[in-house]
Specification:
Blueprint lengths: L12 H10 L18 H16 L8 E9 L27 E9 L5 E6 L6 E5 L2 H15 L1 H10 L1 E5 L12 E6 L16 E3 L16 H9 L15
Length: 242
């Protein structure tokens, strides 16, 4: 300390400690920190802040989600623990089963605070859903994967189910489980690229999916129909007055 601050050279360690304490400087445990070398990091931070602000807007039409995942061990791991001197060491009590890893994937809604999560031994993507130009993003990603690793791309496409709303785009040929859903009055799909199979047509629907407006494509209902999920039970009507 004296090499850095000359006027402390003649002070003892306890005196230096008291001086630092008066200056509100204390010994603290360090934290792991990694500085991002990404030159676009500030711009990305600004984009995230803008997305959160848009989700908080009273008339918000968008949702911002924070996503994270963690791996959980079924069996306890070995770590330091307090115990009496001269006694037996602490035990990490294990069961007879194996140490099966569990993955937990969760998303936090930035506006409502709602958390949606899934817990499985192995989390995979079974279905991709896109709307309008979002389908182009899916197609571009799958074509890029095909160019980079064809074997991996074909293995993914073999089990992947894709549902395209309000667009007909060209997916890799290995993607055979593709369902296209369009509104009967949607003129955008006249510029379609995928023609192998006719799309599912929604009557009295346009291009949009806002169910608060007329002519919407009811995405949730259609997906439940495609996945074979039972419809929500309807509450019985109250008895009429005599």
């Amino acid at each position: 300390m004296g090499q850095v601050v000359p006027w402390l050279q003649t002070h003892s360690r306890s005196a230096i400690s008291r001086v630092l304490h008066r200056l509100d400087v204390v010994l603290r445990r360090a934290r792991d920190h990694v500085h991002s070398p990404d030159p676009a990091y500030p711009a990305k931070q600004a984009d995230i802040a803008a997305c959160v602000a848009a989700a908080w807007h009273p008339a918000a039409r968008s949702v911002t989600l924070f996503l994270d995942e963690v791996t959980i061990h079924r069996q306890p791991t070995i770590a330091p623990a307090y115990a009496a001197c001269g006694g037996d060491a602490p035990h990490a009590e294990r069961s007879l089963g194996g140490d099966v890893l569990t993955r937990v994937l969760a998303a936090l809604d930035a506006a409502t605070g709602r958390v949606s999560w899934v817990r499985q031994t192995r989390i995979t993507v079974a279905t991709l859903v896109g709307h309008s130009k979002g389908n182009l993003v899916i197609a571009d990603a799958l074509h890029a994967l095909q160019r980079e690793d064809r074997a991996r791309s074909e293995a993914l496409c073999e089990r992947l189910r894709i549902v395209c709303f309000s667009a007909r785009v060209k997916m890799p040929r290995a993607c055979t489980h593709v369902t296209e859903v369009i509104g009967r009055w949607d003129m955008v799909v006249d510029f379609a690229a995928r023609r192998e199979a006719p799309p599912a047509v929604v009557p009295d629907a346009w291009h949009h999916t806002n169910t608060d407006l007329f002519g919407a494509i009811a995405v949730t209902k259609i997906l439940k129909d495609l996945w074979g999920e039972p419809a929500a039970p309807v509450a019985p009507a109250p008895p009429s007055a005599p």
